[in-house]
């Protein structure tokens, strides 16, 4: 007998009451294994919990396909929760989407270096009422000697419909292999709308007057304060896989989002 592709499944749920109730109902239907032993993961909750689960996979160095069931708010990375249809059937028919996270390396004013990954975006933001002033370099060449702004972000295609879209950044197709570089409330140059860059490029931000005008960086949910330099580049070695019901994939949703008003 041929073994199913996903013989060992992990079941993870956010701490909300709805997600925990759904988890208990699913748990009774089959045997589940810890994430470290799984061939795939079923994730119950919202986009935030899905991101948390994907980060956990990277942290434990065990990356497997993830199939989300939305019992959160937006659920852009999730599928509809349908208790009547078996998980095995949905996984067998699911469409797979590959997502490359970003690698962010930050140097603080004291010389400390911290590195995190981001699946949606890396955001550099002013810490105080003072406008941030940043030097922006791409692949070792200074492209903008001084950007005065509230902040700037680098978004992946998967994250281009999140904070990036709210900051008037472009929506990127998942297959584009591009990154969105988007300013947040730019003051000078006022009309700069950002750039679209190949994901193979490294982007470096240097905080000008970093003591007078302190800035912080956020990689998804990880924050580093008082930074002097931030380096961002795609991290294809840790490529992630999201699974969607056919006709409801992330690619379809990103395409549809461009026509919403």
Topology at a glance:
Blueprint: E1 9-13, H1 17-27, E2 40-45, H2 47-60, E3 66-70, E4 79-80, H3 87-93, E5 95-99, E6 102-108, E7 113-118, E8 121-126, E9 132-138, E10 141-155, H4 163-166, E11 178-188, E12 195-198, E13 203-208, E14 215-219, E15 222-224, E16 227-234, E17 240-244, H5 250-257
Parallel strand pairs: 1-2, 2-3, 3-4, 3-17
Antiparallel strand pairs: 5-17, 6-7, 6-16, 8-10, 8-14, 9-10, 9-13, 10-11, 11-12, 13-16, 14-15
Please tally the helical runs, counting DSSP H or I stretches of 4 or more residues.
Answer: 5
- Radius of gyration, taken over Cα atoms and rounded to an integer in Å: 20 Å
Which spans have pLDDT < 50 for at least 5 consecutive residues? Answer: none
CATH topology label of the largest domain:
Tumour Suppressor Smad4
What can be said about the biggest beta sheet? 11 strands, antiparallel
* CATH class bucket of the largest domain: Mainly Beta
State the total count of DSSP E strands. 17
Relevant CATH superfamily of the largest domain:
Probable inorganic polyphosphate/atp-NAD kinase, domain 2
Q: What count of structural domains?
A: 2
CATH architecture of the largest domain: Sandwich
> Helix and strand string, N-terminal first?
EHEHEEHEEEEEEHEEEEEEEH
Query: What is the CA-CA span between the terminal residues?
Result: 51 Å
Q: How much helical structure, as a percent, in the residues?
A: 10-25%
**Which class best fits the helix and strand makeup?**
alpha+beta
- On the 0 to 100 scale, the average pLDDT is 92
Pfam family, one: NAD_kinase_C
Cofactor: a divalent metal cation
Main location: cytoplasm
Keywords: ATP-binding, Cytoplasm, Kinase, NAD, NADP, Nucleotide-binding, Transferase
């Amino acid at each position: 007998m041929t073994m199913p592709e996903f013989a060992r499944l992990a079941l993870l749920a956010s701490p909300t009451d709805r997600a925990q109730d759904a988890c208990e109902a699913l748990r009774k239907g089959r045997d589940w294994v810890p994430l470290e032993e799984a061939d795939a993961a079923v994730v119950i909750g919202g986009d935030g919990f899905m991101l948390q689960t994907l980060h956990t996979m990277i942290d434990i160095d065990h990356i497997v396909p993830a199939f989300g069931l939305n019992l959160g708010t937006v659920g852009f990375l999730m599928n509809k929760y349908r208790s009547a249809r078996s998980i095995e059937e949905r996984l067998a028919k699911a469409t797979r989407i590959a997502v490359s996270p970003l690698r962010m390396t930050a140097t603080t004013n004291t010389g400390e270096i911290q590195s995190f990954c981001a699946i949606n975006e890396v955001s550099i933001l002013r810490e105080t009422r003072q406008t941030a002033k940043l030097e922006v370099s791409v692949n070792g060449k200074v492209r903008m000697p001084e950007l005065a702004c509230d902040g700037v972000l680098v978004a992946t295609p998967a994250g281009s419909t999140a904070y990036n879209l709210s900051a008037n950044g472009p929506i990127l197709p998942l297959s584009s292999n591009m990154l969105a570089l988007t300013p947040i409330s730019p003051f000078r140059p006022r009309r700069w709308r950002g750039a679209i860059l190949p994901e193979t490029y490294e982007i470096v931000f240097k905080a000008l007057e970093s003591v007078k005008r302190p800035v912080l960086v956020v990689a998804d949910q990880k924050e580093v304060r008082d930074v002097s330099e931030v380096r961002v580049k795609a991290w294809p070695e840790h490529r992630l896989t999201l699974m969607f019901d056919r006709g409801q994939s992330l690619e379809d949703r990103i395409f549809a989002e461009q026509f919403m008003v």
